[in-house]
């Protein structure tokens, strides 16, 4: 299996990466998710310039049922703390 990038890519010393145009400046991180046909499954949180095709290819090798990859733009300033963990005796 091989991935077909639907966005432009560029290459740097670390390899081929997605050239993401996040025109809204408030998006400073991305969530990478994959889909096996029953919804998005998030698997990585990274900076927009860190989306490398080798990462996607490695995940595809480990999980051959993947049908697509999706990027979800987000902001590291907009989050809600969901729960805290307490040490109980």
Topology summary:
Blueprint: E1 9-12, E2 15-18, E3 29-35, E4 40-46, H1 53-62, E5 68-74
Antiparallel strand pairs: 1-2, 3-4, 3-5
Features of this protein?
single chain; mainly beta; 3-stranded antiparallel β-sheet; 11% helix; globular
Question: Can you give a write-up of this model?
Answer:
The chain is mainly β and 89 residues long. It has a domain at 24-74. It has one helix at 53-62; strands at 9-12, 15-18, 29-35, 40-46, 68-74. Strand 1 and strand 2 form a beta hairpin. The protein is globular, with a radius of gyration of 16 Å. The mean pLDDT is 86.
Which H/E pattern describes the elements? EEEEHE
Number of helices: 1
Class based on secondary structure composition and strand pairing:
mainly beta
Spatial gap, N to C terminus: 50 Å
CA gyration radius, whole angstroms: 16 Å
Anisotropy-based shape = globular
Strand fraction equals 25-35%
**Mean residue pLDDT:** 86
Task: Provide the spatial order of strands within the biggest beta sheet.
Answer: 4-3-5
Percent helix, as a range, is 10-25%
User: Can you count the beta strands?
Assistant: 5
Q: Which blocks of ≥5 consecutive residues have pLDDT under 50?
A: none
Main beta sheet: strand number and arrangement? 3 strands, antiparallel
